[in-house]
Amino acid sequence: MDIIALAYIGLESTNLDEWSRYAPEVLGMQVRPHDGDALLLRMDERHHRIAIRPGEAERLSYVGWELRDRPAFEDALRILDAEGLSYTVGDEELCAERGVHAVAYLDGPDRIRHELFYGQAFASHSFVPGRAHSGFVAGEGGFGHVVLTVPEWSDELNHFVEDVLGFRWFGSGGDVGKRRFYRPKRNFRTHAIGYSIVPGVAGLQHVGIEVENLDDVGVAYDLVQERGYPLMATLGRHTQDPVISFYSFTPSGFPLEYIQGGIEDSEAHPFVEGKPERLSVWGHKFNPDAPKPATMYALESQDAPT
Ligand SMILES: [Fe+2]
Hints:
Belongs to the extradiol ring-cleavage dioxygenase family. One of its GO terms (molecular function) is dioxygenase activity. The protein has 5 helices and 18 strands. By secondary structure, the chain is an alpha+beta fold. The chain has one domain (3-124, 135-298): Roll (2,3-Dihydroxybiphenyl 1,2-Dioxygenase, domain 1), CATH 3.10.180. The strands form 2 sheets. Strands 9, 10, 11, 12, 13, 14, 15, 16, 17 and 18 form a 10-stranded mixed β-sheet that branches. An 8-stranded mixed β-sheet has the order 2-3-4-1-5-8-7-6. The protein is globular, with a radius of gyration of 18 Å. It starts with a strand and ends in an 8-residue tail after the last strand. Bound molecules: fe (ii) ion. The site of fe (ii) ion (FE2) has 5 residues, from strand 9 and strand 13.
């Protein structure tokens, strides 16, 4: 199917009050005023990029994949039908909540709800950052990336990601057999979704967002430390995807990677899959005291969502 981008995600959190300060003041996102109980966060002219709803746990509720237009959306549903995968077409209320023309959703073998949609509402030149900020890299490239933990890489999951969603392989970040990164075929980002394979564990491992200006990474790096959000990894530059980034914990207890300097993995800039010997050129020193991400759970535990 012709997915073009990871356009939005939905989270459930016990900590909306803190999110409502952290997202604009630390990350530079815009809070969208509205009547519902969700906290809607904007990063560009789109309706929203992250929706956080009050709940009893910290978890990723869904990921939203953008189809280019109505015919691409209808093609996507035909592919699900041909695969024998059951899905639900969203009603008017759900479309209004997401701010889209049409949406359908299904649970993936990765234990995450995948939403397929087209036509996300936008308002040109309407983005006002929550703090002085030079803007996010989003638009048609989507909002960033998510990395999910899965207990194993099954044939079913491989088929879902590579054949049903039709994603293009990017690499394994130097951790062959333990990590897998993918992107929609026509997306300029190197990856929009990644999988970290940890036996017995599932859930959200981290979220990555990208900014235009390196100084905004520096400002955010100062702010998370001043406000006491623990680092998972210090500022550094990755090897396979040579961005500068740091990882710190959000009010939901998962690490957020704050990134600048993404390269484009496109036909014009074909990315050769090397085998990096290290995760990073410099930095990304892991904090030995970092907590386990609250959005990851042991499948055997009582906390595992049903
Ligand atoms: Fe990342």
